[in-house]
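Notes continue from the previous slide.

Worked example: a multi-chain complex. Inputs as given:
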Amino acid sequence: MEIENSVILITGGAARVGRGIGLALAGDGAHIAFTYFDDHEPWQKTQSEIEALGVQSLALPLDIRDSEQVHAVIKKVADRFGKIDVLVNNASGPWVKKPFMEITQEEWDLTLDINLRGPFFCAQGVAPIMLSQGYGLIVNITDMSAFQVWPGYSHHSCSKAAQISLTKSLAAELAPQVRVNAIAPGTILLPPDPTPEKIKWATENSLLKKVGSPNDVAKLIRFLIDCDFVTGSVYLVDGGRSLV
Amino acid sequence: MWKDKVIIITGGAHRLGKAMAFRAAELGAHVAFTYHASSEQAQQTCQEIEALGRKTLAIRCDQAKPDEIQTTIAQVVEHFGRIDGLVNSASYFVQTDLFDVDPQGWDRVMAINIRGPFFFTQCAAKHMLEDGGGVIINMIDESVIKPSPEYPDHSIAKAGLWSLTRLSALRLAPKIRVNAILPGAVLKPPDWDDARWAALKNQNPLRKLGSPEDVCQALEYLLCADFVTGQMIVVEGGATLY
């Protein structure tokens, strides 16, 4: 698949890692559609920065928990561009740390709805388009909690581990036309206003003694777009953290 | 990123090793490579790489002999003054059965497929650390995930090479990154007929055969992925999913 003039849909693409991925791939000539949750996110800034790179951009609000909205968004992208080459299931949330015994049913549902139900129905929405095109790539962005123990994130870890299972099932079911892979980034972006302790932790926790960048994830997506003999794989971009 | 850097590729005279030697040269690197029996092909590969405007050095090396590995690395350093990348691509395998493996056969498979890469890593890493760092890439195969009873000793050696990948990623960080590439059906073995090769298409979900280009894309990614170490890049059409 060629990156230039491809159409890439990124969920949660207005800020942070999703925004970094969108800008990097736009720099390679891809048109970028992205979703954002609400106006607290800098979607207009992201959209205009993507357009400044000479490609088209479409920003759409989406509550990913609502599968009707998911299908409406995908239809809008397909209507606007006439195709969808790549879906990046990047939206993730709500990142609430809580002991296992205190997690309520509502909190469990919210986490699993955003991190698992959302990507599931996004994939189900784009798959018919990709199958009729005869090609397509789905990239699920999971994280290191799928492999490591993160006390206080039992709900989050379950959702991210399940994304790997989803990746493999879809790789098998949507082959040979659609390829499905997962990426698990390590610390590639610190929270806003990180404390010195947090920076020290993130740096020392990585074998390579540094924090990564969204561009590290974009490099891998670029490889997955280029190399059409890859499906069902899970790639860690973690500076070697999983070995520590 | 690789302009005027120096990469050594073991088993680089032909097949996948040659394809990777070319890609490294296209990225701007000078390329040293080893060969064992293929001296004519080695000369040919040298000429083709030089035609790309890159320097090259072909070294005959029987990597079953650790002293030849040491000599090889010394020659590369003497010739180019540095080493920035090592690709452990040379391998040796014969089809056999668990009950037919004898100690001599076992020793030869282990000497080439795991002892060789170990000492290449040890020798090259010393120079890389002196030169500020480097990248090591080990070529493994599907038997690391799905052991192949037709190649018992080879499967075990490749599992060892994956272990070496993670171990050296840990030991050599942060200056040296170490990763593996796991190719599937990307190049027909010389002794296979076309029908046997084509039948492999049905053994992966993408229902197709790969090419050396797929492996070169993985190589290029790993050479430049400076936040990635201790990983395997699987390029097998999904064959190991089942």
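Summary box: The helical segments of chain A are 16-27, 43-51, 67-81, 105-133, 154-174, 196-205, 214-226. Chain A touches chain B at residues 168, 171-172, 175-176, 179, 186, 188, 206-210, 212-213, 216, 219-220, 222-223, 226-233, 235-240, 242-244 (CB under 8 Å).
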